[in-house]
Specification:
218 residues, two-stranded antiparallel ribbon, 2 strands, 72% helix, 4% strand, globular
Amino acid sequence: MIYPRWLTWAEKKFGWIAIPNLPLFLVGIQALGFVLLAVKGGSNPAVASQLASRLVLDPQAVLNGEIWRLFTFIAIPMSHGFWMIFVLWFLYFVFNSLAMAWGDFKLTVYFLIAWVGTVLASLLLNVPVESFIFIESTFFFALATLIPNREILFFLIVPLKVKWIALFSATLMVLFPLLFSDWAYRVYVMVAFLNYLLFFGPSYIDFLRMEMRRRKMQ
């Protein structure tokens, strides 16, 4: 991967903002949200749902003073019950793999762009954010771009290459919303994946330029 110039410059100037052990932090936040809803909600789904609604990034609620929502939406668990074990394992696999490939600074910047972009898009477009899944997906797409042929055990049983899982996820989470959602949600989706475009866009552009030159020389 060819890193963008702005990222190399930023690491030299602002390397101190790197968050150590970010994978553990993000997985821990998800685990904490899961435990909180499980303990407080107990066996009553209605109570758990009501508690989860207090964590949602609701633009109107934020404007009314509920500032914590700018942060707590990343704690809304991406699954429930026994399946949460697989989700936490998968999240750690993705985050930790990127941390080893990029280092703490690049991983931190990637997360901050996703978080800030999500918050700004939500507030400006009045789109509630009810899950951490979009931010997590940008990390997974990054991993699939870096090591597309890496195999993982889906549900710890079925071996699948990350590029196929990423392609399926992109269809559901990016293509369908862009085709069938209203304009506000379309803009929100594009902003949510801004970190991916900023990190990998220059590499794609360089690749296209090289392909065009190669074809002209043929």
